[in-house]
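Need tokens for this chain, all 446 residues.
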Amino acid sequence: MRSALALAAKVRAGQVSAVSLVQAALADIAARDGSISACAATFDERARRDALRIDRLVRNGRDAGPLAGVPFVVKWNIDVADYATVAGSPARAALPPAVADAPIVARLCAAGAVPLGATQMDELACGATGVNPHYGAVRLPVDPTRMTGGSSSGSAAAVAAGYVPLALGSDTNGSIRAPAALCGVWGFRPGDGRLSRAGCLPYAESLDTVGGFANDIDDLAVLYDTLDEADARRAHPPCDPAAPLRVAVLTGDFETHADADAQRAVRRAAACLRAGESVFVGSDEVARVREAALVISNVELARAHRGLVDAPAALVSERLRSRLAAGLATSDAAYRHALAHRAAWRARIAALFARFDLLLAAATPCAAPRFTDATVDVNGVALEPAKTLGLLTQPISFAGLPVVSAPCFVSGELPVGVQLIGAPGADAVCFDAARQFSAAWRDMLR
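Here are the structure tokens for all 446 residues:
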């Protein structure tokens, strides 16, 4: 299943039924997901019921919605009525099911889309590899020996595998952008506060966002528009083609932590978008940003999940337990200092948008590592995958900026990604730039 818009048009025209799309997707998951492990659970009964409702609307000549019959999957930390929001944690497996759909799920359903299942993820969204010590690893669809990145690993993999054309995820420090890049799909992280996070289990509440994945930019834009209660794209009309975007490339630390393929992808994106300048950001400055982001993430993780510190070993991994303990041990003064650092960083980055409309950076330092890789080589430096895959996304999250992650294939079949980063409140600019980039990239490959 590739194009959501094409499928919805066929459903509305009566050329294909929503029930047949759901049945085909469920059969595909049953047949192929054993080697990928993208899906944690499928909502068979609900999906068929919702699909039947869409088909009745079509038969009766009524509006079935812009996403009529399109199946989608939901990251396991987002509420779907009557199903447990496990979030990759066995400590939550016995909790009662959600009583209602999260608002972002409800908005997709109101547009005619059909929730098909929940996707695997890192434990409580606390991870960057897609490897969950309790539920196993999500595997890259094009090469199951490799990681997808995380924590929205299953959602990215489900779209990349073709099970569904759309998926929901969450992004705190890079949890949508990293797996989108490694899986070769489009992803978006909205600007802070843009989309409702109600019904999404918190990780680091002041950094959390919800977003999604698609196989092409038009589908991604429709997904965003459907989720956006503020109607951002109508509030921010498309850029004037006669006034080209002012685009700059982030250099310094953003090059130091990007290997040859990742840098090549950024250069090609810069050529597609006619980036004329660069902005140097030093490694010492970004290292302090990452330290502050970790402090905030740990403190807010511990506040949200304090009760798990003393949970039995079988229910909480040692890695998560150590993060919780670190958060509880952090002083209020250290937390306030990290928040102040974030405010200063946001002001520093926001000031760049007086000169530029869009910033570019690699989404991950490298393509997908193998599960057997203890380290990955990034410009001659051996780095652990778990500590590496979010290096380039975390500073952008810390600035609270909207981002579209664009897939790029620059060497063989393994993709990398480029972050198209907009100013605060300028989510629409990211999508306009993404469309320009997509068209220019296709022309470049001809």
